[in-house]
């Protein structure tokens, strides 16, 4: 019995020894994983990026990096870049969503760079004015024919999506439907 009480006290002391008061770092907002996608709008004044259907605010706490870990400047960001995103806090579920970026990782592998060129070609083709904004809903690569099917939608939830087919080699637009 005495050994059981000593064991229980030892376990409690061991558990309590790991408890420390929260620091400001530990109580910081959680970081969430955003969708992988393509930058389709850059607003330098508001410092926001439209990636898929989410606007990410780039604050002083946010970092933009490439796959080599190099920190990129805001001016290095371009339409069509394929990225992975992480955000702090909650995403505002409006359409498009809104959130605060924590990390924007620019994908610079060969496949991502080819996809970037295809997305840029498709957006350039459908964009009639600077104020038009598009979201990439889906990108499919058909390797046998080296064709990219890119499903786009204007930045309004009232619009229907459409698909632009881009030649993977020449980046020429083959079809829009």
From TrEMBL:
Annotated signal sequence range: 1-24
Q: Does the keyword Signal apply?
A: yes
Q: Does the keyword Signal apply?
A: yes
Keywords noted in UniProt = Signal
Q: What protein am I looking at?
A: DUF3221 domain-containing protein
Species of provenance: Peribacillus psychrosaccharolyticus (Bacillus psychrosaccharolyticus)
Q: What is the lineage of its organism?
A: Bacteria, Bacillati, Bacillota, Bacilli, Bacillales
